[in-house]
Amino acid sequence: YQLFVGEVVELYCTDFESDPFSADGGWTHGLSNGAGGAGADDWEWGQPVGKAGAPDAAYSGTGMIGNDLGRDGYDGSYQALKINYVESPVVEVGDYSDVRVQFRRWLTVEDSTWDYASVYANGRLAWRNRSTNAGNRHHTDSNWVFHDVPIGRAVKDGEVSVRFEIDSDGGLEFGGWNIDDFCIVARPGA
Predict the structure, then answer these.
(1) Suppose 58 and one of 7, 64, 130, 178 were both cysteines; which one would form an S-S bond, judging by CB atoms 3.0 to 4.6 Å apart?
(2) Count of beta carbons in the 10 Å neighbourhood of residue 180
(3) pTM for the full model?
(4) What is the largest CA-CA distance in the chain?
(5) Residue 69 region, left (φ>0) first, then alpha (ψ -120 to 50), else beta?
(6) Local confidence pLDDT in tens for the 190 residues of the chain
(7) What are the percentages of helix, strand and coil residues in the chain, rounded to 5?
(8) CA-CA distance, 149 to 22, in Å (whole number)?
């Protein structure tokens, strides 16, 4: 669990109560690698149904984004041998140097010896799930968790976008990313 103490300036926030993939929402998603087909790019917006270790409700309200929310006959797991992503719109951060992304997550993914759950800022790796020598310490949130990731070093020309990605092998698959109450913030005076 994480806790962030201090004042922040909100630069961009969304609770995903409206469709982030609409023209007004500005979010994009896609398949970066792997065979296409039904469910290959499995990022969805809406209400989850609690399959594959994922939540059965959003953190706040009714909307959230995640890998395969388990609706329409799907099992709620991300697919094998795929790399897919969801990316925020580009956000103006001005002259702030201590920029952070803060969100609620419910993440279930294999040890990163096998599957990667990553957060990128402007294409630069900012966070990844843990890897162990044995490859058996899977990341399995059992509730909504606050997550704070510093991304100030990735800001370029006063702008930043954040990408969440799943890179899966051919073995075991879990529920993947579930994200709600997303904010890009800065520390005042930094």
Answers:
(1) 64
(2) 24
(3) 0.96
(4) 50
(5) alpha
(6) 899 999 999 999 999 999 999 999 999 999 999 999 888 999 999 999 999 989 999 999 999 999 999 988 889 999 999 999 999 999 999 999 999 999 999 999 999 999 999 999 999 999 999 999 888 899 999 999 999 999 999 999 999 999 999 999 998 999 999 999 999 999 998 8
(7) 0, 40, 60
(8) 26
